[in-house]
Design brief:
The chain is of the alpha/beta class and about 525 residues long. The chain contains 18 helices and 19 strands. Strands 1, 2, 3, 4, 5, 6, 16, 17, 18 and 19 form a ten-stranded mixed beta sheet that branches. It has a seven-stranded parallel beta sheet with strand order 7-10-11-12-13-14-15. It comes from Glycine max.
Length: about 525
């Protein structure tokens, strides 16, 4: 795929009405996928796959069935687990507006692109995790595919600590995200970050970070606004994050989060890794034995910063996200690092009208790009077609990573595998097919594209012959239990924190450290 073509996959544009593209959901409870190459993370074989009542029942070289079973011929094609997107923001209220796709529309787009589960981020309501998750549960009632929740932590006190426990034990969440950026809104300081990491470890939950130095980013924004905002509005607007979030701020924050996680001895997940600097910090930590996961996103693999300099504001603003898309070379380095990672999207899509909120003030451009429909095809095109990874690697990166996406969040082998007993979330990919990028063929409210030949979700054929067959309320909330494989044996290492003398009552660990 040419660079220009890849860039079009990530461009945002005006809203499009797509209601006539959604048909009634498929209802067949018995399916046979015949003659395809079944691909899991570490193995592939030509086999038939029999599905009944939403569950994979049998995988054999030949399976005979009666007339009541719907048969799909997959000869010459790959039969793979549906993708799991670990990083989305649907129906997200942010920067004075709300992301363009709700749960139903965004999920329908995902299904058309071969993703069958996503994990969205719950933002607290008025500081309450309980109110936050209740609001998201209401939004997700219209879901047409399976989903889970991460929880964002935006402040720290004893109430927050108790609510984290409630989220894990009663709500089925096992991951918490901490923002090191967005000062004055979502950002928390190092003292609270440390407390949050300690709580995550005790609960068996995964600590996640948005790694940028929020204080420095804030200062950069103020400086650039004062210096440049009256000079050349178009250029300023097109370079929002490029001007303000220089690469070293991502690397510095990534290193700081890694060191704090090591201090507590808890696993760490760094979301949307966009730069060589951050990638190298993660690689160094992993080499030392620390349990750190890096998550590149589709836009970072496919694009470079040149689009931020486009003379047309609308085109350039579509690329604004945080951390920003980097200069050429970072994309190739991130691709090379995928042997130890997984791929998300950070789906946080705004249309052109919403992006134009920042036309007179670059600080007001809503941060975010699309990708939930494009991710599977982008990774195939960039990584498999170029022979950088194998077909089994592709499954590992987009669905499992040895069930990685699913293993990290403790839902494998229910998700991320084609095995007896697994959920029947399956895609059929034709390696010889091609498709044209058009606004008409896209299924989110964004004029980009995405296509797989067949998507099966929960045993229902939901995407076939370029037609979506989805219905409100057919998606399920998937609870994710704590203590994934990342927690196994972690206490054998010990941690620096346990070796410190006890702190005086009421004194935080960071305050106590300052006395030494």
């Amino acid at each position: 795929m040419a660079m220009g073509l890849m860039s079009q996959l990530l461009l945002l544009a005006s809203s499009l009405s797509r209601s006539n593209q959604f048909c009634d959901a498929g209802t067949s409870s018995k399916l046979l996928i015949k003659g395809g190459t079944v691909v899991n993370a570490h193995h592939q074989q030509v086999a038939d796959v029999y599905v009944e009542d939403g569950i994979i029942v049998s995988i054999k070289s030949t399976i005979m069935v009666g007339d009541e079973v719907t048969v799909i011929d997959a000869t010459g094609k790959f039969v793979m687990p549906g993708g799991t997107d670990p990083h989305t923001h649907l129906e997200f209220e942010f920067m004075g507006t709300e992301t363009v796709d709700g749960f139903f529309g965004g999920q329908a787009a995902a299904l058309a692109g071969g993703t069958t589960m996503h994990i969205d981020f719950v933002i607290p309501r008025k500081g309450s995790l309980t109110a936050g998750i209740e609001a998201y549960e209401k939004k997700a009632r219209k879901s047409c595919m399976d989903y889970g929740f991460h929880i964002a932590i935006t402040k720290w006190d004893e109430t927050m600590s108790r609510e984290m426990e409630l989220m894990v034990k009663e709500k089925g969440t096992n991951s918490f995200k901490f923002f090191m950026a967005y000062k004055g809104a979502l950002m928390i300081n190092d003292e609270f970050l440390l407390e949050g990491f300690k709580k995550c470890k005790s609960l068996g939950a995964l600590a996640m970070v948005h790694a940028e130095n929020g204080d420095a980013v804030d200062e950069g924004q103020k400086k650039n606004y004062r210096t440049w905002n009256n000079w050349y509005v178009i250029i300023l607007n097109t370079c929002y994050d490029f001007l303000c979030c220089v690469i070293l701020l991502e690397g510095e924050a990534t290193a700081r989060a890694i060191h704090l996680a090591d201090f507590v001895n808890t696993p760490l997940y760094v979301v949307h890794v966009m730069s060589i600097d951050a990638m190298e910090e993660i690689a160094k930590a992993r080499k030392s034995g620390q349990r750190v996961i890096g998550e590149p996103v589709a836009s970072g693999l496919a694009l470079d910063e040149s689009w931020l300099w486009h003379p047309d504001f609308e085109t350039a603003a579509k690329q604004v996200m945080s951390p920003p898309i980097r200069k050429r070379g970072h994309d190739k380095a991130l691709q090379a690092s995928l042997s130890t990672g997984l791929v998300g999207t950070d789906r946080c899509a705004f249309n052109s009208t919403q992006k134009a909120l920042g036309i007179d003030d670059f600080q007001k451009i809503p941060n975010g790009v699309n990708g939930i429909e494009e991710r599977m095809h982008l990774v195939w095109d960039i990584m498999v077609e170029s022979v950088q990874i194998s077909v089994t690697d592709y499954v590992r990166l987009t669905s499992t990573n040895g069930c990685q996406n699913a293993r990290i969040f403790n839902i494998c082998p229910r998700k991320g595998a084609i095995l007896p007993g697994s959920d029947a979330d399956i895609i059929i990919l034709n390696p010889n097919s091609s498709f044209e990028i058009t606004a008409k063929s896209h299924h989110s409210k964004l004029d980009t594209n995405g296509k797989v030949e067949v998507t099966i979700a929960g045993g229902r054929v939901v995407w076939e012959n370029n037609e979506l067959k989805v219905a409100h309320g057919t998606g399920r909330y998937i609870k994710m239990p704590p203590f994934s494989y990342l927690s196994d044996g972690i206490d054998k290492k010990g941690c620096l924190l346990s070796k410190l003398p006890p702190s005086p009552s009421g004194e935080s660990q960071i305050q106590h450290l300052k006395s030494f």
